[in-house]
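Hey team,

Sharing the Cytochrome C run so nobody has to redo it. Sequence (100 residues) first:
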Amino acid sequence: MKKMLVISALACLGVSAFAADGATIFKKCAVCHGAKADKVYLNKVPALKTLSFEERAQALKEYKAGTRNKFGQGAIMKIQLNSLSEADLEAVDKYIETLK
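Structure output:
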């Protein structure tokens, strides 16, 4: 019983050690969207921090799936988001929320 408890505890620690870090992931996004998510990209893509959490979450999911091409950025966004998990996307969205 104690062995299972220890293994379970270590598994939880391992999961949290590899949990998504929104700030680290966002560094790649900051090139186009600005360090504070306040840059209007190409004078047409709104600053990310002006969007609601829900709007950003939906856009991220759609861009990752390749079903969104708003402002003609669908292809590049799909490439940028391709390697990110749902947890990563949520972590980035939560991080942007802290920049307000």
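Residues 58 and 68 are 10 Å apart (CA to CA).

Ping me if you want the raw files.
A.
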